[in-house]
Amino acid sequence: MTKKTTRRDLLRGGLAIAGAGAFATTAARAQGDPAITELQPWMQQLGEGVDARPYGMPSPHEAHVKRRSVEWLTADPVSSVNFTPLHDLDGIITPNGLCFERHHAGIAEVDPAQHRLMINGLVDYELVFTMEDLARFPRHNKVYFLECAANSGMEWRGAQLNGCQFTHGMIHNVMYTGVMLRDVLATAGVQTAGKWILPEGADASGMTRSIPMDKALDDCMIATHMNGERLRPEQGYPIRLVVPGWEGNMWVKWLRRIEVGDQPWHHREETSKYTDLLADGAARRFTWAMDAKSVITNPSPQAPLTHGAGPTVLTGVAWSGRGSIPRVDVTIDGGKNWHQARMDGPSFDKSMHRFYFDFDWDGKPMLLQSRAHDSTGYVQPTKNQLRQVRGENSIYHNNGIQTWAVDARGEAENVEIG
């Protein structure tokens, strides 16, 4: 009896033929490959037991995947930054050990038993909380990106750093667990005149920033955990402030005090620093929100194409401090033709979003760009569009479109086009 051919059989057969054709060269090379025909050492001996690595570590073959710094960027590593290896990651969650660091006085090693959080100023009751006290408030879990306002800052006057780890790596995206700031403030009783808060860190720099009360009562958190484990010392252990969608300098680490006041304090980090210098010498201040931005992570200068012409997966990340990212466009010809990328994975407010573009590369040079659209309707601008408004004196809040030039060998370079 002849079996009836179904539509599913035809589709399966068509996909198999397409796949075989696409990867025929690779398959031919695999014939006689000793990686297939010979037993490998790990197939012939027992491995370590379950207690050999009580805190799991990545494979030694992934030892190159790490945070990196730029030596000449700052005068001293104690007050400096290192960068997340975006080109080596996929999905949207940044592993705790790869989250970029920015310090103003090095890493504070805080004993949680001796750490306190004080609420003072324009409140009915000035209170001091232990870490155990804070753990008794209702707990929440939220996924947010944290981006330094200076991310991409070196690119304001033209292409400079060759790798998305260095152009865009002052960012990470994790799940924070903690308590809502509004719940803690409510116990102290914010007075009617209280319109601002001043969080202060316990590190030697005494980091402070003024934050409007509306934001504090909206979505700010006091975080105790990242991705399920306690904050690491470099990320503010035992507690840090989370200010979703706003520049990372406001996410005060090693949080020790919150003062309630009736006006902003105009401290160093919101006057001489973290303001946007315009062409005429005036400075924009209180530009807290991080606008929609994206970057192609593969291919990129640190992640060249090595497979030659044929099926190719382009991928990257996009984010917005004002909402979610429903759409990303990509171009492989410098903006002559734009294609809507495929969004994949969870879509959270003020979080990273992963996008892909699957295409057949013809082996010719490409100019790669991505352009994010956020849920407010805002579209990521070009660098020249930003410069027309702000000039070239700025450092902070550069969310311009990034360009990678990929040559026929698959190697990529940071360039700038119109």
UniProtKB/TrEMBL annotation:
Protein species of origin: Jannaschia donghaensis
User: What SUPFAM superfamilies has UniProt attached to this entry?
Assistant: E set domains (SSF81296), Oxidoreductase molybdopterin-binding domain (SSF56524)
Signal peptide start and end residues: 1-30
InterPro entries in the record: Ig_E-set, MoCF_OxRdtse_dimer, Mopterin_OxRdtase_euk, OxRdtase_Mopterin-bd_dom, OxRdtase_Mopterin-bd_sf, Sulfite_DH_SoxC, TAT_signal
Q: Which domain of life is it from?
A: Bacteria
| Listed GO biological process terms | sulfur compound metabolic process
Gene Ontology molecular function terms on file: heme binding; molybdenum ion binding; molybdopterin cofactor binding; sulfite oxidase activity
Protein name, as recorded: Oxidoreductase molybdopterin binding domain protein
Sequence ranges assigned to domain Moybdenum cofactor oxidoreductase dimerisation in this UniProt record: 285-402
The segment(s) forming the Oxidoreductase molybdopterin-binding domain are 104-265
- Alphabetized UniProt keyword annotations: Metal-binding, Molybdenum, Oxidoreductase, Signal
Show the taxonomic lineage: Bacteria, Pseudomonadati, Pseudomonadota, Alphaproteobacteria, Rhodobacterales
Q: Where are the transmembrane segments?
A: none
A Pfam family found in this protein is Mo-co_dimer
Q: Which cofactor does it need?
A: Mo-molybdopterin
